[in-house]
Specification:
Largest sheet: 2 strands, parallel
Number of helices: 3
Structural class: mainly alpha
Helix content: 25-40%
Number of domains: 2
Distance between the termini: 22 Å
CATH architecture of the largest domain: 3-Layer(aba) Sandwich
Order of helices and strands: HEHEH
Radius of gyration: 15 Å
CATH class of the largest domain: Alpha Beta
CATH topology of the largest domain: Rossmann fold
CATH superfamily of the largest domain: Vaccinia Virus protein VP39
Number of strands: 2
Strand order of the largest sheet: 1-2
Strand content: 5-15%
Length: 115
């Protein structure tokens, strides 16, 4: 799942050239993650993603959950609806700062309760 046209083109090119074992079978979807029906992917082995880090980055404006780019709730939704065997969520260290402690705790609780 990717909404950026350049990133999709790179993924499609890599898939077409089979750069990794199994990559020719990649299902590349260009869309906004907020519109995806994740139930269609129920039972996948792995959900991996990096919700935008700008809301939590030390260099940003520090709006956290109030930043429209905060896609952590969408990552949580993806995990809950797909029910993968495992998940990996990457973000910035700034997410663990004191200012976001409650939000980080909430995120951990939501991800711990995914099954």
């Amino acid at each position: 799942m990717e909404w950026n046209a350049d990133a999709c083109a790179t993924l499609c090119g890599n898939s077409a050239h089979g750069v990794l074992d199994g990559s020719r079978d990649w299902n590349i979807i260009k869309d906004d993650v907020r519109r995806v029906n994740f139930r269609a992917f129920e039972g996948v082995d792995l959900v991996a993603g990096g919700p935008p880090c700008q809301p939590f980055s030390i260099g940003g404006k520090h709006h956290g959950k109030d930043d429209r780019r905060d896609m952590i709730p969408e990552f949580i939704r993806a995990v809950r609806l797909t029910q993968p065997r495992a998940f990996i969520m990457e973000n910035v260290k700034g997410l663990t700062r004191q200012a976001f402690r409650n939000y980080f705790s909430y995120t951990l609780l939501q991800l711990r309760a995914w099954k």
